[in-house]
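Journal club prep — side note

Before the paper discussion, L.F. wants everyone to see what a predicted structure for a comparable chain looks like in token form. Sequence:
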Amino acid sequence: MLVPSIVIFIAVYILAGLRIVPQNNEGLVETLGKYSRTVKAGLVFMWPLFQRVRKVPLALQPLEISKYSIITKDNAEITTSLTLNYMVTDSYKYFYNNTDSVESMVQLIRGHLRDIIGRMDLNEALGSTKEINDQLFLATGDLTNVYGIRVVRVNVDELLPSPEIQRAMDKQLTADREKTAAIAKAEGEAKTIEMTTKAQNDALVATAKAKAQAVKTQADADAYRVQKMQEALSQAGEGYFRNQSLDSFNQLAQGPNNLVILDKDELTDLGKVPAIKKLWDQSEQG
């Protein structure tokens, strides 16, 4: 009975020493409280009562850093919060080199962020979130060697000025918007005046051109009538003008002033007067 009991005891002891390290974990085996070896994921045997295994997760883990205040270069207070993703790259350093590696990493990141923003003015900091993220990521690259942690991504979620500064910025923004609106309104009114003036000037120019065209048309018509009369006079015979001259002379003689002295050439030209009048009347009727 002794042998079966020993066998059963040994079997139970061995079974009690079996441990399973999950996927994406490493096991730190301690013998009597002292680190002895690191084991990978899977089935692991250790001596019960003398050894134990500490499981360290290696998967990517998110972390949110709560809000805290930072003073900028121009002594403005802003509140910031961060989120990051990290993973354990050295389980021994992560577990044994620091009592709380994650908290130490958080404090280090906060310090780096204070240093980065502390070298910026308020406006520069508020408009440089991407640059701050890049600088902070580069600054936290040495965390692997110190704490056995690698920061995969770090992001500044918000940068908020203090309430007093925010109110002052809102007032400034409102004033800038009102100024911009006033300038836009003034420019619109000036544009309207400019367009109205241009339209009026165009109308005046068009009216002047129309009048000038009418005068030109009338002048062309008068010149045409004169030309036609000249052509008609040049085609008329001397007998026609002689008869017209006698008629004209008779009309002058019948008037109250019956004393008329004319040169013989003027007497001939006198006949052209009624001829010209007739031609002029005909051109106007045509």
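L.F.'s comment for the group: Residues 61-161 form a domain with the Tetrahydropterin Synthase; Chain A fold (CATH 3.30.479.30). Keep this in mind when we get to the figures.
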